[in-house]
Please model this.
Amino acid sequence: MGSVHSILTWAVTPIGLMGAMHIAMGLGVAPARVQEKLGEIGPFWDKTFGFTVPRMPAFCFVGAVKLFSAACIHGLLGPEMDVVGNITMYIPVLGALYMHANKSEPVLPPLIASSLLAARFFV
Model:
């Protein structure tokens, strides 16, 4: 089972590494193409929450959580943080699934990601 766990860990690692782009977006230094794509996220959550979500802290926070999660699942913060990393990585993925479903965008990518994280949690 250890090898399956390792494969699932590496399969979900890009989710965590995407946190660097979220931080770059929050700091306003992301490439234009990334800013265009991730820029669509803010207005959706503004409407969902009923107030304007401050972009810089929100993107930086989500990015930091994703990078923290990646570090945890790879054991960089100790083996006991593996479960914490799996859970904290799952939260933004569920948010993406909710957003994709409500914007009539393809739900398959976040659905696959959430399935991989769920499988990793139980393996």
